[in-house]
Amino acid sequence: MSVLVRNHVKVSGRPDGKPLMFAHGFGCDQNMWRLVAPAFEDAYKVVLFDYVGAGHSDLSAYDPERYSSLHGYAQDVLDICHELDLTEVSFVGHSVSSLVGVLAANAEPDRFADLVLVGPSPRYIDDEGYVGGFSAQDIEELLESLDSNYLGWSSQMAPVIMGNPERPELGEELANSFCRTDPDIAQRFARVTFLSDNRADLDQCRTRALVLQCADDVIAPEAVGRYVHTALPGSELVLMRATGHCPNLSAPEETIAAIKAFL
């Protein structure tokens, strides 16, 4: 099967432009970048895709063993880069995709020029000397709730993750995105995401990086963003005015401006 079909890859913008790849987070698909990606089409070759198991990807290609760690999702990114013969890639990853991008860049550092990490977290569970934002019990309860009633969990959690309660339509959009995701795959991806610990991978990363940290982000609080910035040698940190975990939807103009200033 073609990788471009498998991952529902869409290429737009300048054919001869520097590649700019946007990667979505948990429970989402490439549509989450619709308010951001077009702003770069005049200068870049823009690449959008869905991870296997998300959006309009080929669900039959989902392999529980391959996707039992974030390395499987990083391989999706690398497969697309190989298929399109992309080099000097600027990779923009939202949420868990931030760490997927780090893993891909660590695996093939010569292929990536820049990483833009939007709301990254290398570990969600608190540890000695590390604030992840959640206790182990918090995450276990979150996963149990997700397993027992995925649609109910989606409706309840999406507005919390999105923030911006004065704009309920944003939370509704995220909830709808969660609900469109295959529940079995979402449950597996949630465990891979929320039980991950990629702190050591940050130390190994030598790709130029920007960390975009939102205010009042319940999924990736400011302490985590500052940790990522400190752990990534030579990275830049931008504390955004945007609130919540999804500035690509809630504050696209600010997100676009921050990415353009960095690139």
TrEMBL record:
Superkingdom as given in the UniProt entry: Bacteria
Lyase among keywords: no
Domain AB hydrolase-1: residue ranges: 22-258
MF annotations from Gene Ontology: hydrolase activity
Keywords: Hydrolase
Coiled-coil ranges per UniProt: none
UniProt family annotation: Belongs to the AB hydrolase superfamily.
PANTHER family on file: ESTERASE-RELATED
Protein name (database record): Alpha/beta hydrolase
